[in-house]
Amino acid sequence: AARGALARWVRRNAAPGMLAEGRVRVVLNKCEGLLSRGGSGDLEAAGEEALSLGFGEGVTVSAETGEGMADLYQALWTAFPSDAREAASEAHGQTIRVAVTGRPNVGKSTLVNSLLGYDRVLTGPKPGLTRDSVEVDLPWGGRDFTVVDTAGRVRGSKLPHYDDSGGAVAGRANEDAERAVHFAHVVVLVVDADQILRSVADHRQSSSYLTHFESTIAASALRHGRPLVVLANKMDLVDSADPEERDRVNRLLAEGLPDYQGVRLVPCSAKTGLGVGFLLPAVAEVYDMWRARVQTSHLNAWLEDLKRFHHGGGPTSILGSMRYAAQVKTRPPTFCFWTKKRRGKERKGENSVAKFLRHKLQESFGLTGIPIRVMFR
After folding, report:
1. Do you find a cis peptide bond into 258, omega within 30 degrees of 0?
2. Which contacts qualify for 74-81: CB closer than 8 Å, 24 or more apart?
3. DSSP character for 343?
4. 293, exposed or middle or buried, with CB in 10 Å at 0-12, 13-18, 19+?
5. Rg of the chain on CA atoms, in Å
6. Residue 96, pLDDT score
7. Confidence check: pLDDT of 219 > 70
8. Residue 197 above 90 pLDDT?
9. Is residue 147 a contact partner of residue 155, using CB atoms and an 8 Å limit?
10. Are 231 and 279 in contact (CB under 8 A)?
11. DSSP-based three-state secondary structure for 300
12. In this predicted model, what pLDDT tens digit does every residue of 309-352 receive, in sequence order?
């Protein structure tokens, strides 16, 4: 009875097309040894019960022993449209290029060594040891990553006094790091969590808990259309004082990125390895979102709903003149909105409308924290 009620609930709430396309499957778990022991009678009875639910033939598995997992994988894989399967294969076949950037002495090179599991790049207490970008290849989770360890970024006003060359070496390192960000797929901004808390305690940086220069680096990555992951390093220093400070660091970082809501935050300690394992999953997640494509039919249905809910005056009045929308490219997701002939007043309001649409697109299509571009025609 409970299974029948659940089946009825699924039929009522499944997304349009899922049932017709066979994308709801019944999985029969706890079938340990039935195939190897020749338990055909038990399998046949379970299969008939699965068929009675109305979702086709069930898939027999044992989560404990792993039996039947290949059949489950095949059932799930074939349930997706062919274009989605091709996109997934392409995404998993491409090397993800990750630029690790930030101010000097925040632990970027130590982080790269921690990811690799051995000392590949030079580290030490003195800032500026890394002068040139260093690339390392790293497989993880069936995917390939190229991690680029960049030199610490130095603010322009400090360059003349930063090194013995009058800032020439540091200036070239800045340019090299900016180039690495430009050619990366995902940018990891490393910040010093301990320094953030000390700055708050000293009542500094009241407007943002990132330094102004770190905010500039973040803005540059997003301006290039690159997804951003903020890694709060040196959490071992924070946790040793008060374990609850971890949550406080996350909150302060979120407050320090008011214009980039939803950017992934990863607290860790590169020195001890604490939390480092969460970085590459976060990178892979935002990379896949960065490559996402929204179906045109879904996008235009969303636009019609948006027009119905926002049909008043003000900047969003331009929505009424929009006839059609399409995603014209990925990496980053770029959306074009075709409108009727626009008056001068409407053209002036396009910046605020574009900001509104970016927020709504991120919110509606699971692209929170991903840079989105909007254009009008």
Report:
1. no
2. 75/25, 76/25, 79/21, 79/22, 79/23, 79/25, 80/23, 81/21
3. P
4. middle
5. 26
6. 94
7. yes
8. no
9. no
10. yes
11. helix
12. 876 555 566 788 888 999 988 889 999 998 886 555 555 557 88
pLDDT at position 206, please? 46
Residue type, 122: L
- Sequence-distant (6+) residues with CB within 8 A of 374 are 334, 335, 336, 337, 354, 357, 358, 361
Contact of 333 with 292, CB cutoff 8 Å: yes
Average pLDDT, the chain: 79
Distance of CA 144 to CAs 80, 93, 138, 147, 161, Å? 24, 8, 6, 10, 40
* CA neighbours closer than 13 Å in the CB half-sphere of residue 314: 7
Spatial distance between the Cα atoms of 81 and 85, rounded to a whole number of angstroms: 6
Which two structure tokens, joined as six digits, stand for 339?
């409108």
18 pLDDT above the threshold of 50: yes
Residue 179 and residue 312: Cα distance in Å, rounded? 44
> In sequence order, which residues have a C-beta less than 8 Å from that of residue 216 and are 6 or more positions away?
none
